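Worked Example 4.2. Read the sequence first, then its structure tokens.
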Amino acid sequence: MKLAQFRLKGTPEPRLGALSGGKLVDVAALARAADGVGAETPAWLTTAWLYDVVERGAQGLEAVRLLIGDGRRGSASAGEGFDVPLDAVEFLPPVFPGKILAIGRNYVDHAIEGGETPPVAPLIFTKLPNSLNAHGQTVVLHDISSQIDYEAELAVVIGRRARRVSEEEALAHVFGYTLINDVSARDLQFGDGQWVRGKSLDGFAPLGPFVTTRDEVGDVQSLHIEGRLNGEVMQSSNTSKMIFGVAHLIHYISQAITLEPGDVIATGTPEGVGVFRQPPVLLKDGDVFEVEVEGLGTLINTFEAEARP
């Protein structure tokens, strides 16, 4: 199942959507309508956000599946607008994580292109909550930096609390997977001596558009990943080339940092980033960058120069 958070264009109300037939089913609205005709609908679904599904695990997913599979939706949706065309929505981040933890140099070729030795243990940094952004939204090229770069990545959404879990049981703690562009101000990142500021400017973590539930991803370590700048392929790799796979990352992080439902792990970017190209290819006003991961969809954002009074 693919889940998203969105609002209808021109309206303020946030909604939870489940992708079905190329449209988003408005989960809470459908649940309220079903409840109104006496259907056995869990009360929490009538006001549901993604976190409400995540914290209920398999039971939460099954409740959504039963709801959107209800035969009454077909006749009701045309009149009530439960099925929403994608071009009628403004996507929100598919989850609002308590933590965004990110992994540096997790593909050998990316470490090498930056002149670094591949790490012997996961290199962990964080992107702060103010950096969260969404599919289809504009990312501001803050004028505090002159070297803003793209990074296409697979992101993991945690579904169950993970504290000191083994590598063997780690994937059972995953709710699903999504896409992230780890936008990076390289001059700040490299100049500061640590990465938090350069990675955490406002809007520098576009996420989405969907969270694809774990049961729909057969082998997370065999997915094609691609980053495209204005339609040109800049990054093309496979998650099989990660130095540290998803299961190991969850295991390793959870030994020191408890992972909570809704937390996000950005698993690192493959080779082809802009700063290490000759000459460098850095983001500029009007650029469009796409992140695509096999089976998960495509995250698209436009970049815009900062407007100052």
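Now turn to a second chain, presented in exactly the same format:
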Amino acid sequence: MKAALVLFLAVVAVCALVPGPVSAQLVLYDNFEAKVLDPSKWTASESSADGIDILESARMINTELVYGFKGLEILNRSYANTESDTGRLGSYDRVLFTDGSHIMTIQAKVVVNKFQATTCSTNPGATEPRARIGGMFFNIGTAIPEDNTNDIFAFIAIGRPTDSSEPANVLNVYGIVSLCNNANCSVTTQIHKEDMGTVNKKKVKVGVSWDPSNNQFLFQKGRTTQIWNNIAPVGGPPGTPRGGNKRIEINHLIPNCATSPRPMSYMDAFFDDIKIETLP
């Protein structure tokens, strides 16, 4: 396993820009036209690392006021751990596919309506609120059920770190591929980060996909897809529950801060037209 992991972390990436969607075989999973979330399609959770306080949180079908569509609204406001001045911790509010076992592609239309983030004067780490779709796609070895260790996860994210050099109200779009290093994936190793450009607070189509036949990850923003080829050993399905906890979420990274004022991260985003591709 150690040899395989060393090989994995020595990954060689080749990126290409190609037009069109992540996949031509996408089917609509949910467009949130019902009054409430469908429990046959979704489950939900929210959580935070020790010391982080979630003070505002919601997930519901609602009408987005700028574009006028019905969609899934998720909002979350979280405050930093105050016991340290080093490192960053996270929190999230998410809905998960009830069974993501065969889902290889997730696509969504996303509008970030509001975001706020404050920093710590004694910790240089950036605060970042972000909207994400993705999950765990495979394990590099033989997974232990209900255990994230050695699972590979990929997301496409729309966020804005407080150290961003972009103009106000402009968010970064990027793809992430990482390795879970422990059972609850609280410790991770980032393998690849794919810059997908920027977007302001407007509706954008984004997607993430794993192509197992070619061992490629694909990240979509609008009409552009970026492909990342890797040599990661594919051992089998992820150990993470529900076929990889594939999900739609608001996720925060907040620097620990023992001084006042306490850093805060907030985002309110809408998700619509969730499409997926599954393996037979």
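Notes for the reader: Confidence is low (pLDDT under 50) at residues 1-21. Residues 20 and 223 are 5 Å apart (CA to CA).
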